[in-house]
């Protein structure tokens, strides 16, 4: 069966203290660190890129789960590979013409390829990438419009998660946006196993407790 992976979104961390925030999350029981790489042509926000990943890599051995919200993901494969990214998840909306090349390049740089989709994108659009002879290894279902932390979870996205889990019992399925103690039941019962959580973890007085609660709900 698929393993739970709890991935605090570092977008909600104190970016001025990124290394110690990362260390704190790992101490609190995080499996992965979710790194939101946004460029404002794809989403209405701008965050970090390969130089920050490279700096953080010097301070942690943690799995860096990079979520690329950019229009030209191929341009970021080499720099992020060199910087020490672990996972490279691109958006299907931004890779219509070149996803095969992208997946191949991501794997050749030693990263795990994933594909993500926005709330308005039908789930069928990612099926060819999972069924290809050189497939993606994770699907990230957005449960908010990408761009910002702290938004409200969209429960109607669970239909996508259920459809994926039914078709692909051993696939890593990640959900991202508005996840926390009040929404994890829906995501876990739909079949998600990789859980991104930003504001619910960083805003908690006891982040370790939230992380363990998320993990337990996925395990049950
Ligand atoms: C939104 C990002 C998310 C975000 C999640 O575009 O992809 O990773 O940080 O934050 P919360 O958990 O606060 O919704
Ligand atoms: Zn994200």
From TrEMBL:
Pfam families, A to Z: Ribul_P_3_epim (PF00834)
HAMAP family (alphabetical): RPE
Swiss-Prot/TrEMBL cofactor(s): Mn(2+); Zn(2+); Co(2+); Fe(2+)
UniProt keyword Isomerase, yes or no: yes
Protein name per Swiss-Prot or TrEMBL: Ribulose-phosphate 3-epimerase
Protein family per UniProt: Belongs to the ribulose-phosphate 3-epimerase family.
Keyword annotations from UniProtKB, A to Z: Carbohydrate metabolism, Isomerase, Metal-binding
CDD domains for this protein: RPE
PANTHER family for this protein: RIBULOSE-5-PHOSPHATE-3-EPIMERASE (PTHR11749)
Reaction it catalyzes: D-ribulose 5-phosphate = D-xylulose 5-phosphate
The EC number(s) this enzyme carries: 5.1.3.1
InterPro entries with a match to the protein in the record: Aldolase_TIM, Ribul_P_3_epim, Ribul_P_3_epim-like, RibuloseP-bd_barrel
Lineage, highest ranks first: Eukaryota, Viridiplantae, Streptophyta, Embryophyta, Tracheophyta
Gene3D superfamilies: Aldolase class I (3.20.20.70)
């Amino acid at each position: 069966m698929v393993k739970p992976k709890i991935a605090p979104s570092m977008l909600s961390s104190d970016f001025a203290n990124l290394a110690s925030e990362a260390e704190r999350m790992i101490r609190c029981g995080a499996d992965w660190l979710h790194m939101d790489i946004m460029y404002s042509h794809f989403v209405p926000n701008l965050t970090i890129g390969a130089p920050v990943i490279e700096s953080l890599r010097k301070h942690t051995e943690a799995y860096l789960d990079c979520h690329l919200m950019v229009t030209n993901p191929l341009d970021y494969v080499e720099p992020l590979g060199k910087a020490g990214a672990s996972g490279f998840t691109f958006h299907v909306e931004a890779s219509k013409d070149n996803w095969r090349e992208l997946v191949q390049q991501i794997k050749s740089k030693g990263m795990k390829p994933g594909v993500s989709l926005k709330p308005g994108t039908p789930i069928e659009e990612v099926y060819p990438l999972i069924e290809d002879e050189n497939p993606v290894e994770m699907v990230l279902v957005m449960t908010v419009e990408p761009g910002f932390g702290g938004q409200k979870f969209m429960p109607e996205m669970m239909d996508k998660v259920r459809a994926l889990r039914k078709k692909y019992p051993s696939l890593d399925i990640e959900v991202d946006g508005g996840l926390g103690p009040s929404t994890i039941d829906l995501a876990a019962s739909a079949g998600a196993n990789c859980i991104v959580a930003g504001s619910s973890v960083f805003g908690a007085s006891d982040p370790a407790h939230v992380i363990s609660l998320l993990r337990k709900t996925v395990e049950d």
